[in-house]
Write a structure and sequence with these properties.
Order of helices and strands of chain A: HHHHEHEHEHEEHEHEHEHEHEHEE
Number of helices of chain A: 13
Largest interface: A-B, 43 and 43 residues
Oligomer: homodimer
CATH architecture of the largest domain in chain A: 3-Layer(aba) Sandwich
Helix content of chain A: 40-55%
Shape of chain A: elongated
CATH class of the largest domain in chain A: Alpha Beta
CATH superfamily of the largest domain in chain A: Response regulator
Number of domains of chain A: 3
Radius of gyration of chain A: 26 Å
DNA sequence: AAATGTAGGTAAAACGTTTTATCTGAAAAA
DNA sequence: TTTTTCAGATAAAACGTTTTACCTACATTT
């Protein structure tokens, strides 16, 4: 049983394909009688336009390509549903790919998407893909970067305000009386990691605390979990004066949690902690870890809006196409209430 | 700068589109000289076939639709990469959708995929979608169910061997000397949940233990986490004799973990536990929770093979298209070593 | 009565491929 | 020499739409 086409409808209603197409798309002029008749039979026969034929003719695939670092990751999980919903409102579908934080794979995915004639791209940038993305820009393909960006390149992006997110956390720690705050980060060459680090050092300076290099630990991205846990342990042991520790990503925070738990450190009694980027695990067990949460739905919505604007589907009320969205401080119990040591005590 | 088409290549090489197509697809007869020339210019110009035009002409979209319960879920995360890899080997792409365990949404997604002319479907079944899936079957569309199936309907599927997975866990507990084993499950109307429950009762019977209804707790699927945690707590408190507890899914296990931790129960000293379906959290903290792990990559690979076979892309060496894959018992430390109370002690 | 306008409708081209059927010219067979 | 064969190449149709340009018949204006 073949699928029913516009020609079939035309034959059944004794009209031409043109008229059917006009009626179905609300173009041209057609008498009320014919309009009704065509609409009725189309409905009765369950006519669905062949999207492929439409795409070929119109040059629009109505597909958006999303390239993300890792489809298993929590960022993707949080972001995908919102993207899908927004896209659907405007008749777009999404094709997902993962770059595995790997230049070759990322490039391959971009080619694949181009090949499949997607109308626009949402990409979480990997270092090394700058040129490929710029090629899209110069060929006028709509692109939005998400979760990171390429500094110096004029490409629309939307991400969390990393600097001020970290600042909120550090402020919170300092307010609570902590003074020797450690920072654990990772050696990924991504702008957001740099901004997080500078959020840390600048906020300390703002509070007249001199950043101490020994209190910063930079782990290798491709370390195993065990290696990370061990490195964090010896970092903590080496810095006896450290009374709080800030993790720059959630997987670092999780490794840290495990490390502290191995060493039988109590949080927050022995050491306070905050992690950037919330995760189910942080809310799960006593005492509950305070985090800087990314507003993922908002990020997704903003990214899709930016893209739809470029696609001409949506009026923009935005002046800029470079968006930073504030992060949320989620207070749990890994930071102790101020028990400030009074100077005259 | 328009994309280059087969006509362009024809013009450049002084041949016809037919010849170019033949050369590029290895069909027809073409002299070596022309072949080389065409291949060379195609490469030089970076020719990529317009997949949409190909699809329209051949009737093959080279796209596989995947409908999963929830794109944020861990099952999806684990399975997606493997599916993608396998699909790519045969030139297929994947479009992902989530049904949100919701009949209306699931149906909508299936329509959307049909509309987009996908060549085949991989679906994690939701109750209520039986008819829609059967409609696909009768219209000869390739379909594979994953992670569950519809009992009584002749639709290919691949999932973990739930019954024997549970059996392994119960055996393990009994071997270690536990006798009053509780079971926490959820009221989802899915065959795999029934099989897990019967795995529990049958294995107990096999060991001459009479299943006790009071030791089975069935939670509502749409409960909040808090409600689950509370229900589990009172369940544990009500059954003082219970020395081990088996959770039928990972989110139940996580709730249980939190519940036990709230009540200051020590695992495995106060109570032993096992959860079906592994999760990062279970490996993370002392003591480490023993789980029944689903071999997700294998499941994904098997499902894709089944589908590719139906698509005629792959020779099958399989007799059946209904596959159950053994689960793995991952021993951690939530089950204490046998300290069997000797009858004569 | 002739010219003009207009509502309602359609033929045909186009999108970029694949594939069938056919055409050409030269070599081989008669 | 004429016929057959066959390798090598291509014209044209088809996939299912959208859209341009045009046609018809009737009403209105001059």
């Amino acid at each position: 049983m073949k699928k029913i086409s516009i020609k079939d409808i035309a034959r059944m209603t004794g009209t031409s394909p043109t008229t059917v197409s006009f009626v179905l798309n609300g173009k041209g002029r057609t008498s009320d009688a014919l309009t009704k008749k065509i609409l009725a039979t189309a409905k009765k026969e369950g006519y669905q336009p062949n999207q492929i034929a439409v795409s070929l003719r119109t040059g629009q695939s109505k597909v958006i390509g999303l390239i993300v670092e890792n489809m298993g990751g929590s960022f993707f999980g949080a972001v995908s549903k919102e993207l899908e919903n927004e896209a659907k409102k405007y008749g777009y579908r999404i094709v997902y790919c993962s770059s595995e934080n790997n230049v070759r794979k990322g490039r391959e995915m971009m080619e694949m998407l181009a090949h499949q004639q997607v109308d626009g791209y949402i990409i979480t940038p990997t270092a090394g893909l700058e040129k490929d993305v710029m090629k899209l820009m110069t060929s006028k393909k709509p692109v939005v970067l998400m979760d990171s960006y390429y500094p110096g390149l004029d490409i629309p992006y939307v991400l969390v305000d990393n600097f001020n997110g970290i600042k909120q956390g550090i402020d919170h720690l300092i307010e609570a009386g902590y003074e020797n705050i450690g920072f654990v980060t990772v050696d990924l060459d991504l702008i957001q990691m740099k901004e997080r680090l500078s959020g840390y050092t600048e906020t300390l300076k703002f509070h007249k605390i001199k950043p101490d290099k020994k209190l910063v630990l930079t782990l290798k991205y491709d370390s195993t979990k065990e290696e990370m846990v061990n490195e964090i342990s010896s970092f903590v042991r080496k810095n006896k004066n450290m009374d709080a520790i800030f993790f720059a990503t959630n997987y670092l925070g999780i490794a840290g949690l495990q490390s502290l738990s191995n060493m039988k450190y109590k949080v927050p009694e022995d050491i306070a902690m905050i992690s950037f980027d919330d995760h189910e695990i942080f809310s799960l067990f006593a005492p509950g870890i305070t985090t800087i949460q990314q507003p993922t739905e908002e990020i997704a919505r903003a990214a899709m809006n930016l893209l739809l604007t470029q696609l001409g589907k949506k009026e923009s009320n935005l002046i800029t196409n470079k968006i930073q969205i504030p992060a949320n401080l989620v207070r749990r119990n890994s930071v102790k209430k101020a028990k400030r040591v009074m100077p005259n005590a």
